[in-house]
Amino acid sequence: MKKDIRRSLIDRYLNAEAEPEEERLLAEWFAVHGADEDEKEVARLILAEHPEAAFEAAEVEFESIVASHEKISKDALTKRARLVRWACAIAASAAVIAGIGLFLAQRGTCEFDGLEMAQGIERIMALDTENVESITARPKGNKVILTAVLNDGTKCSYVMSKDAGTSEITITAMR
Which of 122, 141, 150, 154 is spaced 20 to 30 Å from 132 by Cα? Predict the structure, then answer.
């Protein structure tokens, strides 16, 4: 809005001659663009009378940003969602590993360390990253039970064990 038009609206506002639409227009202008040095007092006054103008201006800006982001291709959104799922799975795995580490530090009966359990979790995640929601690891004697929870709520369990003598880790699906 040009300065002379703003000046005219300010004068009308200060003389109580401005229409409500004119006051709202002026308030929205100040909410978005700020006020020049000689308009600051009037801007504070009109924004105090029309606090919704700042909200509405922010809403318009938000809608503009959302509209520009909607132009991102569906593939990019799918890739982003996949990355978010991976990040969540990794974070969940880290939390499980930390919990297992604490558990094992207290019990000391499991043959697996936290890194080996994390590798087992990673192997299960690699089988079906799209459908796996979470994986938990539960030490059971010299084995670890890995339970994968799928997006549809079903569970799949696996037994992780070490081959005697070679320390090679195997993972076997359970029914």
Answer: 141
Q: Which residue has the tokens 């002379």?
A: 4
Question: Domain spans of the chain?
Answer: 3-69, 74-173
Distance, in Å, from the CA atom of 111 to the CA atom of 117, rounded to the nearest integer, reads 10
Quick check: pTM over 0.85?
no
Supply 97's token pair.
Answer: 């590993």
> How many other CB atoms sit within 10 Å of the CB of residue 116?
18
Report how far residue 87's alpha carbon sits from residue 83's, in angstroms, rounded to the nearest whole number.
Answer: 6
List of residues 6+ apart from 164 with CB closer than 8 A: none
Residue with tokens 């996949």: 82
Please give the order of strands across the beta sheet that includes 169-173.
Answer: 132-140, 143-150, 155-162, 169-173
Task: Render each residue's pLDDT in the chain as its tens digit; 175 residues.
Answer: 888 998 998 998 888 898 988 988 888 888 888 888 888 888 888 888 877 776 666 676 667 766 666 655 555 667 777 777 777 777 776 666 666 565 555 455 567 777 788 888 888 888 877 888 888 888 887 788 888 888 898 888 889 888 777 778 888 888 6
Residue 41 tokens read as 């007092």
Residue 116, classed as helix, strand or coil, is helix
